Amino acid sequence: MTVSKTKRVVLGAITLCLTLACGLAFAESMSWNLTEGVTPTSKKVYDLHMIILYIVTAIGIAVFAVMCWSIYFHRKSRGAIAEQFHHSTFAEITWTIIPIIILIVMAIPATKTLIFMEQTGDAEMTIKVTGYQWKWKYDYLEEDISFFSTLKEDSNEARQRYASTRPEDVENYLLDVDNYVVVPVDTKIRILTTASDVNHAWWVPDLGWKRDAIPGFINDNWTFIEKEGVYRGQCAELCGKDHGFMPIVVKAVSKEDYAAWVQEMKGNARVAAATPVEEIAVEELLMKGKRLYNSNCAACHMPEGEGVDGLFPALAGSAIANGEAEGFAHQILNGKNMMPPFKDQLSDTDIASVMTYVRNSWGNAADAVQPAAVNAAR
Amino acid sequence: MSEAVAHDDHHDHKPTGIGRWLFSTNHKDIGTMYLVFSLIMFFVGGAMAMVIRAELFQPGLQFVDPQFFNSMTTVHALVMIFGALMPAGVGLANWMIPMMIGAPDMAMPRMNNMSFWILPFAFTLLLLTFFMPGGAPAGGWTMYPPLVLQLGDGFPFLIFAVHFLGVSSIMGAINIIATVFNMRAPGMTFMRLPLFVWTWIITAFLLIASMPVLAGAVTMLLTDKYFGTAFFNAAGGGDPVLFQHIFWFFGHPEVYILVLPSFGIISQVIPTFSRKPLFGYASMVYATASIAFLSFFVWAHHMFTVGMPLTGELFFMYATMSIAVPTGVKIFNWMATMWKGSMTFETPMLFSIGVLFMFSIGGFSGLMMGITPVDFQYHDTYFIVAHFHYVIVPGIIYGVFAGVYYWLPKWTGVMYDEKLGKLHFWLSTISVNVLFFPMHFIGLAGMPRRIPDYNTIFTGWNQIISIGGFAFGLSQLILVWVVIKCARGQGEKATDQVWESAHGLEWTLSSPPPFHSFTTPPQVTDATAHS
Predict the structure, then answer these.
(1) Domain coordinates in residue numbering, chain A
(2) In angstroms, what separates the C-alpha of A307 from chain B's closest C-alpha?
């Protein structure tokens, strides 16, 4: 009995130590540890993380070793007789002072890193990031470039409950978007975070920080990416139903490529503005509408238009969706209650396509809507 | 003489039937009801955790929709914190405090009844929301606006449930303070109180100081939603971050409200099974009080990423780190109590040692997250999920388990099944580490918390975590079995002292104790105090 008891306690202690050792082993390999990242901040943060990890691991091993020693040697089954001491001023002062010293040793580099991270001044460019349920909007303040970035279509299809594609077959599942945030390397970039509806948090691990995006507040942050590449992140503050489905992709390119990208974006905007509004074939509207519906509307109104009882109204059979085109367009353009206004997010053609798709799906049967009608409703 | 016996018998006459429980003013019966309620809620909250782990077993959505998944994480937390952990602590306090200080009952028995009976109604309100348009709360247990204001018809039910829980806790806390301050036996000075009583006094003061703050915060949410105020609405001149400050001013002391009673329990258990007096009694009391005091100055470490000024971030970082000092003192004192003792490892001792090891792991990750610049990476990932579950499950819940096994023979008069108890401990301990340790890795590797689906690189660890979760959940059925066996009187008859070297007034009473604990106050001296 006593032998098996001993064995069990020793086994337990070994299990615990092994778990800890596994933890350390994994911490050494990149994939299960914090990323070192690609900015001076992320590298400082990584170093700080490793220092603290080593310190607490060392303390842990020392403390656990003493406990294991005591559990093994000071047991009744080994004939240990209890001593009756119950305090020692020296010991108590020692184990108060030593932790204080260790904490001060940790606090010094932590304070330095924090001060470094909060220097948001003299940035060369500024990007404003706005969180929406459930997508991100990026405004390049100096360049007058502005776009939304949503979960990529293949991920969006595979994440549905009765999806025909498997997450394993989608590249960068849930971590890919339609429009990347393109930024130049070796440039101090100021990143302002805010939100239009509820709290979000903008987080790209390779940049070394996350920051909440809060409606009515603008938080300033900065980054300085040293290496070209594509860096992926996610929203990190619970923001409702599709919190898990609003990723972030930052693409860092050379300064020349960045300049070219800026020119291309501005050119696209000019072409779109100059294109006259034309009649569009219904098939084309339906095709485009389905794609836009799935990326902009399906999160709340559901892919089959059935809505969510008590939260989001159904579009299948909806009086508004099947009624006068003008009223329906107003609702989409200006929003209502929890529904955000889409007038800045989608063009007339986009909205006309979505309306046409909704009015001709899931048993709905109403006229197609042309961009000109949406333009009139604006 | 015979008259006196008959008189005593009359006093020990228990009411029968449902009335015994509905109208109970007896600290033991109310304590039992609290503990049974807590156990039921532990399984209700646990069932929600099983849904979460089933959904996260593989990428893609298999069982539930994202909205329902969010309800699961939200209500799991509310049920576990307010339904399982807090009532467990109050239940143990109800049972043990009068017996430990030599009192016949609690100071305010009718209020005691009321503070328990509010709970089932509060949780009925909360759980009814699952059947309402808009569903159950899904904005996180922290109820951050503006998100929480999007909740449907369940919203006022959530708010009133929180109000009721607060009222219940405050009444419980007042009762405990009144009892300890007024009903100690002669000679039971404050510095002779068992440590479990000390931790509960401090917990009770924390409750009285922090629960009204929560009540204020949720009332402001209510008026923001229905009465046109804009406390937390930036568009109306309000401040959404203000809610987070108020909430965590309650929320951080709440952490210690949960953990201090467990600290008290293991301070009773470790000396008993080490056959040695508790090391550093006075410093234990002072360390507990310091932790409680400091807990009011660290709230913003829960929200480092909201964008505070540098000086604010530095202040909260230093304050947070400083809590490691008194917490360390407590751990070292427990180690010193075990040191050169003559230990045996019955189930309560095993669970207490489990607390020492695994609460420490939670403490280490807590220290890491207290470092503000690194917390910008850890915040809102699975790293924090690993951290607080290490603190809560093998920290707080193990402490409660230790207390239940330690006092179960006293309560029921029969020894629990030691083999089953040990099986419960070992299965729980292995599975709880399989469940929570890998969460550190996926958190560091970049998996945010509160997401129903994830990138395929996280699949492997999530499957291991889910298997650990199911195993841990099933292991808890052993506890139910053990408790039912004891309640039915199946087992060896327990002696009054139960454990070879147990000290303290509760062990001078019979097992099970009389219906009214001490009708004549015992005289306490140094020799009989200090368990």
Answers:
(1) 3-117, 125-154+170-274, 282-377
(2) 11
Task: Show which residues of B are catalytic.
Answer: 76, 105, 141, 168-169, 252, 254, 256, 267, 301-302, 327, 330, 449
How many C-beta atoms surround the C-beta of residue B471 within 10 A?
Answer: 16
Q: What is the number of structural domains in chain B?
A: 1
pLDDT in tens, A322-378: 888 888 888 888 888 778 888 877 888 888 888 888 888 888 888 888 888 888 887
| DSSP calls for B122-139 | HHHHHHHGGGSTT-S--S
Of A110, A136, A113, A94, which is closest to residue A41 (Cα–Cα)? A113
**B87 φ/ψ angles, rounded to the nearest 5 degrees:** -60, -35
Q: Which residues of chain B are within 8 Å of residue A106 when distances are taken between CB atoms?
A: 321, 367, 371
* d(C-alpha B507, C-alpha A22), whole Å: 43
Domain that holds residue B281: 2-7+27-508
Assigned domain for B47 exists:
yes
What confidence tens digit (pLDDT) does each residue in B427-462 have?
999 999 999 999 999 999 999 999 999 999 999 899
The correct answer on CATH 1.10.287 for the domain covering A3-117 is: yes
Preferred mutation among A243, A250, A304 to probe B, highest tally of B CBs within 10 A: A243
- Among candidate residues A315, A184, A189, A180, the one with its CA nearest the CA of residue A257: A184
B503 occurs within a structural domain: yes
Which of A125, A151, A301, A153 minimizes the C-alpha distance to A234?
Answer: A151
In a domain, B528, yes or no: no
**What's the topology of domain A125-154+170-274?**
Immunoglobulin-like (2.60.40)
Closest CA in chain B for residue A211: B305
Do B282 and A87 make contact, defined as CB atoms within 8 angstroms? yes
- Structure-block tokens of residue A36: 């070192």
ipTM: 0.90
CATH number for the domain that contains residue B92: 1.20.210.10
What's the pLDDT tens digit per position in B471-529?
999 999 999 999 999 999 998 999 999 998 898 999 999 989 998 889 888 988 876 66
The Cα of A330 is separated from the nearest Cα of chain B by a number of Å equal to 22
Q: Do A236 and B278 touch (CB under 8 A)?
A: no
Average pLDDT score over residue span B246-255: 95
Place of tokens 């006309």: A352
Task: Select the residue from A92, A108, A204, A336 to test the B interface by mutation, using most B Cβ atoms within 10 A.
Answer: A92
Taking the domain A282-377, which CATH number applies? 1.10.760.10
Q: What is the pLDDT, as a whole number, of residue A196?
A: 92
- pLDDT the model gives residue A162: 85
Q: Which segments in chain A show pLDDT lower than 70?
A: 1-31, 273-277
Cβ-based contacts of A242 with chain B (< 8 Å): 66
Predicted pLDDT at A378: 78
Q: What is the pLDDT of residue A209?
A: 94
The pTM is what?
A: 0.89
Q: What is the pLDDT of residues B405-428, one digit of tens each?
A: 999 999 999 999 999 999 999 999
Tell me how far apart the alpha carbons of residues A129 and A131 are, in angstroms, rounded to a whole number. 7
Scan residues 277-296 of A and list those with Cβ closer than 8 Å to B. none
DSSP string for residues in B214-272: HHHHHHHHHHHHHS---TT-GGGT--HHHHHHHHHHHHHHHHHHHHHHHHHHHHHHHHH
Please tell me which of the candidates A44, A71, A158 has its beta carbon nearest to residue B60: A158
Test A66 with B335 for CB contact under 8 angstroms: yes
Q: Which residues of A touch B377 (CB under 8 A)?
A: 34, 45, 49, 205, 208-210
Best of A24, A57, A76, A155 to mutate (most B CBs within 10 Å, chain B): A76
Residue B343 and residue A80: Cα distance in Å, rounded? Answer: 8
- Between A332 and B199, name the one with better pLDDT: B199
